[in-house]
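Long-time lurker. I teach an intro course on protein structure, and each term I like to show students one example going from raw sequence to a predicted 3D structure in C-alpha cell notation. This year I'd like something fresh instead of my usual example. Would anyone be willing to generate the C-alpha cells for the chain below so I can use it in lecture? Attribution to the forum is fine with me.
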Amino acid sequence: MCFAGFRPSYLLRALPLFVRPGERSTRRFLEWETGGAPPAPELVRLMGLGAVEFRTAKVVTGPRPDVTRAVPTLLLLAGRSRTHDPRRVAARAERTLAGVRIATLAGVTHHSLPYADPDALGGQVLGFLPTGLPGGAP
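-- Reply from a regular --
Happy to contribute to a lecture. Here you go:
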C-alpha cells in the first residue's frame, strides 16, 4: 500500500478471511494467491490464528514513505503478485523515492515472497545492506 492500492480481485478473494476467519479460509486464499502452489503451513497457521484472534482489530497498512528524507531503500516485488501490479508499484516508487533500488523476484507471489526463493531473497537483502558493522567489527 506504500505505492499502489490492492487489486480489486485480491480484495474480493480476501473477503472470506473476514467473514469466516480461520485456517481453512486462509489456506484457500493463499492457494489462490500463489497460483495453486501449496502455501507454507506455518504461514497458513499464523494468518489463520491471527484472523481469529484479531477479528475485531482494525486493518492497518503502513504509511506512505516520507519523501523529504533521503533514506536508502530496497523495494522487493513479487513478479507473480496477485496483490499488486509490480510494474505499477515499481514505476510509482521510482517517481516517489530518489535512488530507490527495486528488484523483482520473478517466480514468487506476494505471500510466497518470504519463503519461495530464500536464496534470491537473501541475496537481494545482503547485496543491499552495507558490509561490516559500525566500529569496524566484521
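Some talking points for your students: The helical segments are 8-19, 23-33, 41-53, 86-96, 118-128. The longest strand covers residues 74-78.
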